[in-house]
Amino acid sequence: MQDDNGDTLIFAPEEDAPKGERKYWHILIADDDEEIHAVTKLALAGVELDHRTLKFSHAYSGEQALQFLQAHSDVALILLDVVMESEDSGLQVARQIREELGNDEVRIVLRTGQPGYAPEERVILNYDINDYKTKTELNRVKLLTSVVSSLRSYQQIRTINESRRGLEKIVNAAANLMERHNIYNFSEGVVTQLASLLGLNPEGLLCVRQHVDSEEILVLGAAGHYAKGIQRPLGAINDAKIMRYVKDCLAQQQHLYFDDASVFFIQGKGIKAAAYIDSSQRPC
């Protein structure tokens, strides 16, 4: 693509805004048809969402799209053509974004002018995308609806991930504090504060560690209906699911996330602990 001076453009030249100062939603249009780029920008011209404008960048092949995403972590949405340099290049890009780039935040809307190459049902089931549209059905209203819903989803995912990263920092800091305080009293405080940070009732929270001289797992601190288990073996809780989650966390020595719970691994000098959080418990 060329600008008014005849210079070749591959990507929009704008630099990423500093974190916390972003005043726009960054959208990448990936399509080998220059007219689609122009029509998309025209259809979304003047749109603002939550007092933030739309910023557009451009790629004309799957390879360019991946290169751009590697270099720009602030892209919220990619409008991705299925058929570019190959019949399934868009599908391969969608898979690589999730699996190779490890980017689970950017929202992916696939667009195609040739739906026969990639049937909708197969694509939706087999690829981690957020929407799949034929170009003929994307009038301004439908395009705007798809873009706005994707951007709101992106914001929710970002909020969840930032909260998770913040919580993991707190859990890692807790290991150092555990070395400096009475471990039982401190553990009880950990589970209560974790509940408060997560907006949960202080129920179903458990802090445990492996006993130094054996594989036995000891309850260090608990809240709610688990409180009676403090300073007793985890098996006394008599909950196979919690036992499995905690054992897996300690064995793998990493944070684990499940649909109904999260288990945070805490390690300090001579300490291996797991904080179990029942995420199904919510305040009334």
Automatic annotation (TrEMBL):
The modification 4-aspartylphosphate is found at D81. Keywords: Phosphoprotein. GO terms for biological process: phosphorelay signal transduction system. InterPro entries: CheY-like_superfamily, Cyclic_di-GMP/3'3'-cGAMP_PDE, DUF3369, Sig_transdc_resp-reg_receiver. Signal peptide: none annotated. Residues 26-150 form the Response regulatory domain. SUPFAM superfamilies: CheY-like. It comes from the Bacteria. This is Response regulator receiver domain-containing protein. It comes from Aliidiomarina maris.
